[in-house]
Amino acid sequence: MEIIVNSIFVEDQDKALEFYSETLGFVKKHDVPTGEHRWITLVSPSDQDGTELVLEPNEHPAAKEYQQRLFADGIPVTMFGVQDIYEEHKRLQDKGVNFTVEPTKMGEVTVAVFDDTCGNLIQIIQM
């Protein structure tokens, strides 16, 4: 068994697609109309056959509440690995990304957290 898809709730699919592709650098793999919304997935540019990230509309009341509560409590919804967290932090800050937690060493890893502008906090980690 392997993980092939992971979803993240977003307030606006177009805004999320722009942020996750143009700002973060993920590659759009699928963008398929599904009625009112779209099936949008992105992949890492270094592993385009790897796990896909789905930009899932948060229209269901439970999804919206889940997303809002995690954000309010400062809890990231997912984690992305980076090779050099300080370099990535600077690159993203230069693109206007707002960090809620600056790079912080925690034992064997260093983490940082930013606002994805789509209703979520995202953590990046350097192992």
From TrEMBL:
<protein>
    <submittedName>
        <fullName>Catechol 2,3-dioxygenase</fullName>
    </submittedName>
</protein>
<dbReference type="InterPro" id="IPR029068">
    <property type="entry name" value="Glyas_Bleomycin-R_OHBP_Dase"/>
</dbReference>
<dbReference type="GO" id="GO:0051213">
    <property type="term" value="F:dioxygenase activity"/>
</dbReference>
<feature type="domain" description="VOC">
    <location>
        <begin position="1"/>
        <end position="127"/>
    </location>
</feature>
<keyword id="KW-0560">Oxidoreductase</keyword>
<dbReference type="InterPro" id="IPR037523">
    <property type="entry name" value="VOC_core"/>
</dbReference>
<dbReference type="InterPro" id="IPR004360">
    <property type="entry name" value="Glyas_Fos-R_dOase_dom"/>
</dbReference>
<keyword id="KW-0223">Dioxygenase</keyword>
<dbReference type="Pfam" id="PF00903">
    <property type="entry name" value="Glyoxalase"/>
</dbReference>
